[in-house]
Amino acid sequence: MRPYMRAENENWGNTVRERLFDQRSAVMVHWLILINVVVFMLGFFFQVEIPRNIYPPGRLDLIQLYGAYSEYTCFHEGELWRLFTYQFLHANLGHILFNMIALWFFGPVVEERFGHLRFLLYYLFCGVAAALFSSLLGYMGFFDPEWRFIPMVGASGSIYGIMAACAVLFPHARVQLLFPPVNLSVRQFALAVLGVACAVIIFQWNNAGGEAGHLGGMFAGFILTLLILWKEKLSASRPRVVSTSHRSPAHSARHSTNNRFPSEEEVNDIMEKISRSGVSSLTEEEREILRRASRR
Q1: Which backbone phi and psi does 4 adopt, to 5 degrees?
Q2: How far apart are the C-alpha atoms of 39 and 18, rounded to whole Å?
Q3: Residue 229 burial (CB < 10 Å; 0-12/13-18/19+)?
């Protein structure tokens, strides 16, 4: 499944150029994509033979050897950094391609809403939660006895957390899938991938451990997003002393209009504009509409 925000008459060349090289808006998204790609390419230059009794036989790059997460290396050998480093490693070209496309499409609106630093911390937190949740299901007996030695890599847990944030903040925004060719709301899309992950785990299909990580990242993202909104709501409900002596009737009317909840049509129009031209193309008024819509 390759999601993209629906847009009419989209100029693909302009979209790629603006989203990937315009650092004025989704700064963290672009840096995360760059770091993931660079780390993936470096892995081709540092290959080692892996003993058959330790990892699956074959060759593995040194970055994965010392950066991939497994319950045994992280907690029994004390290499806690693996909870973070595994998020920047990928198994193959298809793995990194899918993850970076998903980060590219879903990440900017969440970063715009949360801010650069909070978005980065959110991203890393969801990745850590993904690894821990997968290990928790291993302890509960969902996987084979060797699960604690199997390495886990990928940014999927973090990206599933970002999808969860989109489903909470902008549930009615539309997502068009290339395969299968269906149009869904972000909420419906999140529920669909959640259902797939649950089915893979329950029926022990291929990559059940990885899907457990996806599930953990999505749960963590959902809970963390609700906590962020709850904190913002508490902050907004605190009484503030505002001087109104110099306000004109026009200012008061404009202030009242800006505080109303935007309609679903307004939000969808803005999301399609992001799809065509990137987050940096939004006006300050449009950014405010997205912020108010996410507090609904």
Answers
A1: -150, 150
A2: 23
A3: middle
Average pLDDT over residues 155-176: 91
Q: Which domains does the chain have, with CATH numbers?
A: 3-228+259-294 (1.20.1540.10)
pLDDT tens-digit readout, 20-31: 444 457 899 999
Amino acid at 167: A
Please report, to the nearest 10 degrees, the dihedral formed by the alpha carbons of residues 61, 65, 66, 68 taken in order.
100
CB 208 within 8 A of CB 215: no
**Cα 7 vs. chain centroid, distance in angstroms?**
21
Could you say which DSSP state residue 123 is in? H
Q: Two tokens at 258?
A: 């800006």
E strands, the chain, in order? 3-5, 47-50, 58-61, 174-177, 183-185
Assign 280 a pLDDT band (cuts: 50, 70, 90).
low
DSSP 72-98: IIIIIS--TTHHHHGGG--SSHHHHHH
